[in-house]
Write a structure and sequence with these properties.
- The protein has about 270 residues and is an alpha+beta fold.
- The chain folds into two domains: about 120 residues, no CATH class; about 150 residues, no CATH class.
- About 70% of the residues lie in helices and about 10% in strands.
- It is built from eight helices and five strands.
- The strands form two sheets. A three-stranded antiparallel beta sheet has the order 1-5-4, with helices on one face. It has a two-stranded antiparallel sheet with strand order 2-3.
- Strand 4 and strand 5 form a beta hairpin.
- The longest helix has about 70 residues.
- The protein is elongated and about 115 Å long.
- The two termini are about 20 Å apart.
Length: about 270
């Protein structure tokens, strides 16, 4: 329970595995498990008599039985606990220091990718009005072709304007910009923000998908928007990989003397 409390105090989240092993000194000696060895030898001889075999038990085989030999079990539990707790606390401090260092590297990369995302968004914004004009002209020409010269030109343009308005990507660009600002704000706050960042990246990915779907099928400058939209999706996906799949693995070996040997504890943080 002391160890659990220490882990909850030092680590905010994650999965922890702690393995403790005791290496005994040569002077600790070994103890023969007489009950186990005796039982094995008696069973061996009984089987030999029953089946009429002439054989003697091999001592080398007997002593290799699990539990046949063991060290002196005289560990001082109080010393053991004090030594392990002290060293694990030191290990957790080192672990958090490394996590901070790794976190700064990830923070830098995420900020760079957000900058690339905003740059691509600005490029899309520059071509938005040209795409709208192209879409309106193409739509008006197609409608005129289908219904003939008897149609009201103003009516056609009104209908075209409505369709073009539905195809406008301004809302997606505004929301994308808002999500990026929120994302950077969370990075500035620090703390446990992984789930929030992942949610924002999902929203960014949704906006980029909508942007691409609204500009598909158009030539000219729309192709540039498609190219920049794919770039935005690539940057978002790389950020999601960092936020979702980032795992830090550390093996920290500590040693502390006890009454019966050296205690080696391995603290592993995933």
């Amino acid at each position: 329970m002391k160890l659990r409390r220490l882990l909850k105090e030092k680590l905010a989240r994650g999965h922890v595995e702690i393995t403790l092993s005791v290496d005994r000194n040569e002077g600790d000696g070994f103890r023969l498990n007489r009950e186990l060895v005796s039982g094995y030898i008696q069973a061996f001889r009984a089987a030999s008599t029953e089946f009429g075999l002439m054989a003697d038990p091999d001592l080398n085989v007997v002593l290799r039985l699990p539990g046949a030999m063991g060290g002196n079990n005289n560990l001082n539990q109080g010393e053991l606990e004090a030594a392990v707790m002290a060293q694990i606390e030191q290990g957790l401090t080192s672990l958090n220091q490394m996590r901070d260092e790794e976190g700064r590297g990830i923070d830098k990369e995420l900020r760079e990718r957000m900058a690339n995302l905003l740059k691509a968004r600005q490029g899309v914004e520059q071509h938005r009005h040209t795409v709208l004009r192209t879409y309106a002209d193409k739509l008006a020409a197609r409608i005129q072709e289908l219904i003939g010269a008897q149609a009201d030109k103003e009516r056609i343009l009104q209908e075209a304007a409505l369709l073009v308005d539905r195809s406008d990507i301004q809302e997606e660009l505004v929301r994308l910009n808002t999500h990026v600002k929120h994302f950077l704000g969370l990075l500035d706050e620090g703390g446990e923000i992984g789930k929030k960042l992942d949610f924002l990246l999902q929203e960014m990915n949704r906006e980029s998908n909508t942007l691409l779907s609204k500009t598909s099928g158009l030539a000219g400058d729309a192709l540039k928007i498609t190219e920049m939209g794919l770039l935005m999706k690539a940057e978002i996906e790389k950020c999601r990989e960092q936020v979702q799949n980032y795992r830090m693995s550390i093996v920290y070996i500590i040693s502390a003397p006890s009454g019966s040997g050296e205690i080696d504890a391995c603290l592993r943080k995933f």
